[in-house]
Design a protein that fits this description.
Helix content: 25-40%
Shape: globular
Number of strands: 17
Distance between the termini: 25 Å
Strand order of the largest sheet: 2-1-6-3-4-5
Structural class: alpha+beta
CATH superfamily of the largest domain: Aldehyde ferredoxin oxidoreductase, N-terminal domain
Largest sheet: 6 strands, mixed
Oligomer: single chain
Strand content: 5-15%
CATH architecture of the largest domain: 4-Layer Sandwich
C-alpha cells in the first residue's frame, strides 16, 4: 500500500444526505498523485456538461501524499471544480493547517455533489463525515463563522468557510480558513454557496499516523530539501530581504522598478507611490507578527494591524497580489484603506485579485464616462472602493452586476476591453509587457490568467531555475512549459509554490520516492506534470475552449509600456504561442487524440 495516503475519500451527496467512503485506485494515485491532479481527474469523470452553480457540479477538496507530513512547506489543500467565473476546470489552494488536519482526521479528500435544502456544514473527524445544520451561520462573515465553529468543536479544529459573497453566488467568491488563508481563485466559494454548504470543520486525530516508506532515505531527502530552502537568499530569514522578512509583498518595489507593475487598470506599468504599500512599508508601519503554516521555515505570512474609526483591526495578511490589486492598480496608496479593502474581501469571502481588478476596471469605466459617477468609482477613491465591495458581496445596486466579475461586468456595459482578463479570470500583479514570460503564461493558463501555473518571474527576476531577460520573448515558451508541468506535479503533492524558489526536480523526485514508496526520476516528475496539465486542457477543450482561446487583453498586445525598464514594449504573443504549441504537441490550443493516448489520459 502506498504511503502518505489515508486511502479514504468521502463521497457526499448534499441533496440526499448520503455519505459513502472509498479508497482511491492505486493506479490513479500513481498517475495523478493527489491534490490538483487527482481532483481534476474526478472533475473530468464527473463530466463537462454541468452548470458550475448547479447541484451536479463536483466540489473536490483534496490533499496530497506529503500533506500533513514533516515535508517542508506541506500545509496545503486543494479545491477543484468547474469554475462559475470562467467555465474552465479550476483548482485553488490554501495554506495554514486545514490540509494537514483533514489528513489527520483520516481523509485524503471530500467529493461533494448535490445541494442541501437549507444551510449545512460538514464535520470531519475520526474517519467519518457528518452533515450539520448551519442555519444560524448563514449570513455571517468568514471570521464570525470560524469563531463560532471553533468554540463549538474545539480550538484545535480547523475551519474553512464561505462568507456572504459565496452565499450570494458572487462569481469570484472564495473559501477562507481560520488563519485567513484563501482558496481564492475561480469562484470555488460560489460553488459552495450553490450547494448551501457554509463550512467544513476538520477535527484532527493522530498526527503521527503517516510514516515514510523508507525512513532513513526520507530523512536524507528531507534534509536536502531543507538545506536548499535555507540556502536560498530570496526565501528565508535571517538573510536580508526575501519572503521571510517582507512576505510576498517584497515583490512590489522590485516589479515596479523594472516597469512591470500594472497600475491604473494596467494603463501604466509603474507608479511612484506603489512603495507606500510595499512589503518594506508594511513591515515598518503596520506589521504585528510573522506567522507561518504547517512545517514551513519561511513564515511569509504577515499579520498586520490598522486603526479605523479609533478601532484596531488585525488580520492576515497583505499579500503582494492583494496589495497591488487594491492599491496601485486602483490608484490607491493609503495603507489603512488599502488594508481594509483586503480585510473586507476576506470577511465577505472574495478573491482579492478578482475584486481588485473589478474595482480598477470600474474606475476606468467611470472616468471614461461608461458608468455614471454616482454609481461608479474614481481612481484613488480607496474608501469608496470599500463601500463598493460591500455592495458586491451582497449584490446590492450596481454590485449585483459587478458580482459577475470584471469580464462579464465590462461586457454588460459594452466595454469588454477594460477587463484585464484571460478566459474570464483577471490578471495578477505582473504586466506582460515588462515580464514577457507572464504573457505566454497568462494566455495558456488552463484556469484563466494566473501567475501560479508558471511563475516565470522566478527566472526573469530571480534567476530560478535559470536567468532570463524579462523583456526577451524568445525562450519563454520553453520556460513556461517547464514551470507549468513542474507546478502541476508540486500542486498534486501538495507543496507550497514557494518551494520552487529553492527546490528542483531532484528534490521533488526524492521526497516523493522515499515517502510514498514508488521510485520516480526527475523526468517522471515532468511527465506526470505534463499529464495533469494536458488533462486540464482536454477538459477545457470539451467545455468549448478551443482555437483562439489562448489570448490576452488587447492593451498588452497593442498599447506600449510607458515606464523605464520596459518602455515601448508590447507582448509578442503570437510568436510565443507558435513555440509553445510546438512544444506541447497541441493544435492551436487543442489537444490531439494521439497526445491524449501518449500520456495515458484516454
Amino acid at each position: 500500500m502506498l504511503k502518505g495516503y489515508a486511502h479514504r475519500i468521502a463521497n457526499i451527496n448534499l441533496s440526499t444526505g448520503e455519505i459513502d467512503y472509498f479508497a482511491p485506485a492505486e493506479e490513479d494515485l500513481k498517475k495523478y498523485i493527489g491534490g490538483r491532479g487527482l481532483g481534476v481527474k474526478y472533475v473530468l469523470e464527473n463530466g463537462v456538461d454541468v452548470d458550475p452553480l448547479g447541484p451536479d457540479n463536483l466540489l473536490a477538496i483534496l490533499t496530497g501524499p506529503l500533506t500533513g507530513t514533516q515535508a517542508k512547506m506541506s500545509g496545503r489543500i486543494t479545491v477543484v471544480t468547474r469554475s462559475p467565473l470562467t467555465g474552465t476546470v479550476t483548482d485553488s489552494h490554501m495554506g495554514g493547517w486545514t490540509g494537514p488536519k483533514l489528513k489527520w482526521a483520516g481523509f485524503d479528500g471530500l467529493l461533494i455533489k448535490g445541494a442541501a435544502e437549507k444551510p449545512v456544514y460538514l464535520v470531519v473527524e475520526d474517519g467519518k463525515v457528518t452533515i450539520n445544520d448551519a442555519s444560524d451561520l448563514w449570513g455571517k462573515t468568514t471570521h464570525e463563522t470560524h469563531e463560532i465553529l471553533r468554540k463549538r468543536h474545539g480550538e484545535d479544529a480547523d475551519v474553512m468557510a464561505i462568507g456572504p459573497a459565496g452565499e450570494n453566488l458572487v462569481k469570484f467568491a472564495a473559501w477562507l480558513n481560520n488563519d485567513e488563508r484563501a482558496a481564492g481563485r475561480g469562484g470555488t466559494g460560489a460553488v459552495g454557496g450553490s450547494k448551501k454548504l457554509k463550512a467544513i470543520v476538520m477535527v484532527p486525530g493522530d498526527k503521527g499516523a503517516y510514516q515514510p516508506a523508507d525512513k532513513e532515505a526520507w530523512k536524507e531527502a528531507d534534509k536536502r530539501a531543507l538545506a536548499k530552502i535555507m540556502d536560498e537568499q530570496f526565501v528565508t530569514a535571517p538573510r536580508k530581504g526575501g519572503l521571510s522578512v517582507y512576505g510576498t509583498n517584497v515583490l512590489m518595489n522590485i516589479t515596479n522598478s523594472i516597469g512591470a507593475l500594472p497600475t491604473f487598470n494596467a494603463q501604466h506599468t509603474s507608479w511612484e507611490k506603489a512603495g507606500e504599500v510595499s512589503g518594506e512599508a508594511i513591515r515598518e508601519h503596520i506589521l504585528v507578527k510573522d506567522n507561518t503554516c504547517h512545517a514551513c521555515p519561511v513564515a511569509c505570512k504577515k499579520m498586520v494591524e490598522i486603526h479605523l474609526n479609533g478601532k484596531p483591526i488585525r488580520f492576515e495578511s497583505i499579500e503582494y497580489e492583494s496589495a497591488w490589486a487594491h492599491g496601485p492598480d486602483a490608484g490607491g496608496y493609503d495603507r489603512t484603506w488599502v488594508s481594509y479593502s483586503i480585510y473586507l474581501c476576506n470577511a465577505f469571502g472574495m478573491d482579492t485579485i478578482e475584486a481588485g481588478n473589478l474595482i480598477a476596471a470600474t474606475m476606468e469605466a467611470t472616468e471614461k464616462g461608461f458608468i455614471a459617477e454616482d454609481e461608479g468609482l474614481k481612481f484613488g477613491d480607496t474608501q469608496g472602493q470599500c463601500e463598493f465591495l460591500e455592495k458586491v458581496a451582497h449584490r446590492q445596486g450596481i454590485g449585483n452586476k459587478a458580482a459577475e466579475g470584471p469580464t462579464l461586468f465590462m461586457e454588460a456595459i459594452g466595454h469588454p476591453e477594460l477587463a484585464m482578463s484571460v478566459k474570464g479570470q483577471a490578471i495578477p500583479a505582473y504586466d506582460p509587457r515588462g515580464l514577457k514570460g507572464m504573457g505566454i503564461a497568462y494566455a495558456t493558463s488552463n484556469r484563466g490568467a494566473c501567475h501560479l501555473r508558471a511563475y516565470t518571474p522566478a527566472s526573469e527576476l530571480l534567476g530560478v531555475p535559470y536567468k532570463t531577460d524579462p523583456i526577451e520573448w524568445r525562450g519563454k515558451a520553453e520556460l513556461t512549459k517547464l514551470l507549468q508541468d513542474l507546478s502541476a506535479f508540486t500542486d498534486s503533492l501538495d507543496l507550497c509554490k514557494f518551494s520552487q524558489f529553492a527546490e528542483g526536480l531532484d528534490e521533488y523526485a526524492d521526497q516523493y520516492s522515499t515517502y510514498v514508496g514508488v521510485k520516480i526520476s526527475p523526468d517522471d516528475v515532468l511527465k506526470i506534470g505534463e499529464r495533469i496539465y494536458t488533462m486540464e486542457r482536454y477538459y477545457n477543450n470539451l467545455a468549448g475552449f478551443r482555437e483562439g482561446s489562448d489570448t490576452l487583453p488587447e492593451r498588452f498586445l497593442k498599447e506600449p509600456s510607458d515606464s523605464p525598464g520596459s518602455e515601448g514594449q508590447v507582448t509578442e504573443l503570437r510568436e510565443m504561442l507558435d513555440d509553445y504549441y510546438n512544444l506541447r504537441g497541441w493544435n492551436e490550443g487543442v489537444v490531439p487524440e494521439e497526445k491524449l493516448k501518449e500520456l495515458g489520459i484516454v
